[in-house]
Amino acid sequence: MPLTDKFGRIHDNLRISVTDRCNIRCFYCMPEEGVQFTDRAEILSFEEIERFVRAAVPLGVTKLRLTGGEPLVRRDLPRLIERLVVIPGIRDIALTTNAVLLGKYASDLYSAGLRRLNIHLDTLDRARFLQITRRDDLPRVLAGIDEAVRVGFEKIKFNVVAVKGLIEPDIVPMARFCRERGFEPRYIEFMPLDSQALWGRKRVLTADEMIAMISEEIGPLEAVPDADPRAPATEYRYADGGGRVGFIASVSKPFCLNCNRIRLTSDGKLRYCLFAIDETDVKGLLRSNASDEEIAAVIRQNVAEKWLGHEINSVKFVPPPRPMYAIGG
């Protein structure tokens, strides 16, 4: 039986946070100081992550994404990738990273079997990068991107968080940068996931606004025909054939009805939605030698309880009690 919720959505995509720690401090995600990270003893080991994945694969999970925090601050991460790529049934593994450490680890990641990268980069302007991340690391990020290309990574996407009143000068330059180098930018509407209550609807630069900006400055965009309806990004392509652009319109055009994802936090909590209020503990099962059948039953129950959607556009919306870095990107 596929991993299906009560609304008929089939789940085959598992996002795994390997750490809640991060080496930058994006203002919309983390405070600059005083962040309380999870004790390392409570973080799932690579063996526990692998065990969970092996229990989830018979339920239909075929895609994995490793996230954080910043996953490259987790020691020996390529070793985890080596363990996951050989699991029968897993056909796609991706890594989301801020690329600060990518220059150091790109070769090892590729050798371990990783082939897809999503790089979180909001701007190519050094001063604005420092303003957003509170770290002067843009040169390291750009060098890491170059190194990833050099070692063989071809499927590289860029995640750009679109905060209105800040990011407008970067929308078109990022699109041009990606178009010229064969990358795909994915513009993400600012979501209420920060730990400092900074979010507000007036700070959301919408997908439609960004499409208009790119179309006017670079060239017309047209919706990609026959796109995967379960993908979080709505894909567009340039009318002249010069590449693709994705938009994750979680606020203006929620895609909850097509969601196929579940999430495992670094401290072993299973979540059926990024915005979920409740979590299911699986770390206890993993550390008490529970059977694969018991783990599978908990996964099925979690998905069975999945709600229709996050209701950001409703008065009933309640922000999740944990910020993005603690949930997993």
Question: What are the salient characteristics of this protein?
Answer:
TIM Barrel; 329 residues; 10 helices; twelve-stranded mixed beta sheet; alpha/beta; 12 strands; 17% strand; globular
Tell me the structural class: alpha/beta
What's the main sheet like?
A: 12 strands, mixed
| Strand-residue proportion | 15-25%
Helical stretch tally: 10
Q: Helix fraction?
A: 25-40%
The CATH topology is TIM Barrel
Summarize the structure.
With 329 residues, this protein is of the alpha/beta class.
Task: Provide an overview of this structure.
With 329 residues, the chain is α/β, with parallel strands linked by helices. It has one domain (13-327): TIM Barrel (Alpha-Beta Barrel), CATH 3.20.20.70. Helices cover 30% and strands 17% of the residues. It contains ten helices and twelve strands. The chain has helices at 46-56, 77-85, 102-112, 126-133, 138-151, 168-181, 207-217, 283-286, 292-304, 324-327, and strands spanning 13-17, 63-67, 92-97, 116-120, 155-162, 184-189, 221-223, 234-238, 244-248, 261-264, 269-271, 280-281. A twelve-stranded mixed beta sheet has the order 7-8-9-6-5-4-3-2-1-10-11-12. Helix 1 (46-56) packs parallel to helix 2, helix 2 (77-85) runs parallel beside helix 3 and helix 6 (168-181) crosses helix 7. The radius of gyration is 19 Å and the shape is globular. The model has no long low-confidence stretch (mean pLDDT 93).
